[in-house]
Amino acid sequence: MLGVLANPGFESFGTERRRIPLVRPLARIALIGIGAWLCWGASHFGKAERIMEQAQFTGIDEDMGLKKIDLLRQAKEIDPDNFYLYYTSGQTWMAALNGGMPDIVAKSFVEKALADFDYARTLYPYDYINYQNIALCLTWLRRYDEAETMLKEAIRWAPNHNPPWMDYARFLTQQGRLKEAEEAYEKARRGAYHERIVDTEIALLRQRMKAEGIPTMLDAPKPE
Q1: Which residues is 18 bridged to in the sheet?
Q2: pLDDT at 67
């Protein structure tokens, strides 16, 4: 683009110089417009980034995360389509929960976290971890059917990763659906990122199953 603007025209040996009408002034206008747009974007969205970074270094112990939440709110007002801002806000609400909180306050925190995670999902529906976060909120609120749906969505987006299978197995264990939980743990063991915690949890589950008289996969007859 700069080369075109610097060249007074186009000419070849034995021919007169030619100019295409309006190309140079239009190119100049376009270059100035693009530069102005880039400067505006850096100034506008850069401010949201600075506020977000400030929020990242803000603790949650002294005021239950309210200062950090307020910083993220300011960033969301500047950049309302930024998925990560809502994701981080939801995580902050959940991290601020503590056992000494009155139930009504804790419920309010979880509902606000759920709203942030859910909006993040509308902006970027491909992050399986966000579905796990939504399921965590729904489980806390005892909306178990919806939580299970979200866990299955997480698995749908990342079927070969063990974290969603792990969360689903834990959910099924809490629901007393031990046979299904064992199957989910086995799928977690075959995931791309096998962790020792999978072996530990499935061993504890099988101990519980044996104590309750429920046969495990290990009890199934082996083919001869």
Answers
A1: 10
A2: 84
Q: Long-range CB contacts (< 8 A, 24+ apart) of 56-64?
A: 56/88, 60/92, 60/95, 60/96, 64/96, 64/98
* pLDDT averaged over 10-residue windows placed end to end, the chain, 224 residues: 53 59 67 60 59 71 76 87 91 85 92 96 94 97 97 95 94 96 92 78 94 87 58
Phi, psi of 18 (to 5 degrees): -120, 145
Query: Minimal CA–CA distance to 54: which of 36, 43, 68?
Result: 68
What is the distance in angstroms between the CA of the first residue and the CA of the last residue of the chain?
Answer: 75
Backbone angles phi, psi at 158, to 5 degrees: -140, 65
Cβ-based neighbours of 112, under 8 Å, separated by 6 or more: 90, 93
DSSP string, 130-167: HHHHHHHHHHHTT-HHHHHHHHHHHHHH-TT-HHHHHH
Query: Could you give phi then psi for residue 164, rounded to 5 degrees?
Result: -65, -35
Whole-model pTM: value is 0.75
pLDDT for res 57: 67
Asked whether 185 and 169 are in contact (CB, 8 A), the reply is: yes
